[in-house]
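Supplementary notes for students who missed Thursday's class. We covered one full example, reproduced here. Read the sequence, then the structure, then the short commentary at the end.
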Amino acid sequence: MKLSIVATLYKSAPHLAEFHARASKAASLLAGDDYEIVLVNDGSPDNSLEIAVALTQSDPHTVVVDLSRNFGHHKAMMTGLAHSRGERVFLIDSDLEEEPEWLADFSGDMRRTGCDVVYGVQQRRRGGLLEASTGRLFYKLFRALTGINQPDNIVTARLMTRRYVNALLQHQERELNIGGLWVITGFQQLQRVVQKHSTSPTTYTVAAKFSHLVNAVTSFSSLPLVTTFYAGLLISVSAAGFIAFLTLRYFFIAAPPDGYTSLIASIWLFSGLIILFLGVQGIYIAKVFAEVKQRPYTIVRDVYGIEKNDRSPT
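Structure (token representation):
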């Protein structure tokens, strides 16, 4: 099969019919009749599944992978890639903020350069000042704390070769961050500037971004653990020096003044640091706990499509 288009569904009902029509047209222009559209229902609470299943009945190119519940966007994307069979795989969101027609331009770049991945980046992040500033901060902190050079304002849309997809699927993390995996999988990758549309208000809050940053950093770097060691060492050396100073002052200069303010402040400071460091270690322990259980990161309830019985994850 020449081409697979993979998209996830979550509250996608208003856009799904148009997305399917435009994706089908873009795919047929590039691959003729030799393509598939893989839609992964990530526990969508609306009628996205019913619409998608109806599409499989009218279009033999469409396959729907129905997950047993909502597992999250990144895990749903990996599941869709695992069910794809094309020599080229175009991953894209189904909400029409990213255009299916980008496929032609991405394919042209891949054909011209011989690269394995062409991915989209926004020249300017959509949204207001808060959205733009928190987005920039996320990427800067991620790069600083992990050493992984993930580009700013990257979007979901990307065209990949089969060998790259197979390599990507070798990662078996349970708590995965797909943006980092895209980078560390390697191969020759080319970015293309795109203009992402706004079809609905973002539900990605500042708290969600912070949680995503913590998960991303702890998934790819041990730097927070190393930092706690050096911070503890610095505090210990500073405390030892201060104790030596007080001892010398007591015996050779004068007794230090009585008072509890500095004592209480110190207790609060160091107690907070201890709890913070334990919390950092707890995050890593929780990740180890999740990994050693070896639970599947998604569970497929059903697969709809003409080749349902012949389809299994790659």
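Commentary. The two ends are 14 Å apart (CA to CA). Residues 3-205+297-310 form a domain with the Spore Coat Polysaccharide Biosynthesis Protein SpsA; Chain A fold (CATH 3.90.550.10). If anything here is unclear, bring it to office hours.
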